[in-house]
Structures are given as C-alpha cells and as structure tokens.
C-alpha cells in the first residue's frame, strides 16, 4: 500500500494551461494518499489474511530498469518501491479532488548488490501469483467504501 510518493519522472501532468473546472492551479498534495482508505485496506487485508506492506513509492520514467547505484540512491532518499507509473495519475486525481488509495505489486526486490538480469516471465509469474489476493482486497474495498 502506497503511503506517499516521490516524483522523479521529470514530469508533472499539470504543467500547461489549467482548467479551473477540473481543479485548482496549485492543488494541495499534503496527503496524496487518503489515510482512511489506507486504514480500510489494512483492516481488510488483516481480516482476509492478505500480507501487505506500506511504504513510499518512487516514480521514474523508464523504460529501462534501474542500475545498482540508482537503487542505492532511491533507498537513501526513502524509497520502498520503484515503478514507472502511478505518480502522475495520483497528481491528476488529487488535482480533481479525488480520494486516492495506491497499491502496487512488488515483482522484484531489486537488491543492488544482488541484481540479476530482468526476467519478464518471472515478473509476470509473481504478478499472477498476487492477483487473486489483490482482486479479493479490491472487491472488499469497493463494497465497503
């Protein structure tokens, strides 16, 4: 469960003309991820016996995976997870006044001194293994919101 993020994409989807009907020019980002939704997800996960972790997500542009020095740096600045999505979508959602719950499936631990070449088949297998629990969690969340 994402509790906060660091935007290292080098981009912000709000750059450019702002349509005030969609949200303010300078939206508040003091709580990008809704604490009540985080607590609800945590409670449901406990009840459903689904293992979860909470942490800070760092958004990068990709499309390459990171090198060992980058993983060390990211850990140093507070990253618990790294990905190429989510952050810009959250910025737009918050700009529009939407409550956000961020969840991510960790497919690889990315330990800098033990990095192995990326094996997409393995990443897909990990995601497929997590999918039933994630689907169960999301269905309960949607019923209880």
TrEMBL record:
Pathway(s) of this molecule: Purine metabolism; purine nucleoside salvage
Protein name: purine-nucleoside phosphorylase
Keyword Magnesium (UniProt): no
SUPFAM superfamilies with a match to the protein in the record: Purine and uridine phosphorylases (SSF53167)
Record CDD domains: PNP-EcPNPII_like
EC number: 2.4.2.1
Gene Ontology biological-process annotations: nucleoside metabolic process
PANTHER family to which the protein is assigned, alphabetical: METHYLTHIOADENOSINE/PURINE NUCLEOSIDE PHOSPHORYLASE, PURINE NUCLEOSIDE PHOSPHORYLASE-RELATED
Similarity comment text for this entry: Belongs to the PNP/MTAP phosphorylase family.
Top-tier EC class: transferase
One cellular component term from this protein's GO annotations in UniProt: cytoplasm
Keyword field: Glycosyltransferase, Transferase
Nucleoside phosphorylase domain: residues covered: 1-143
Molecular function per GO: purine-nucleoside phosphorylase activity
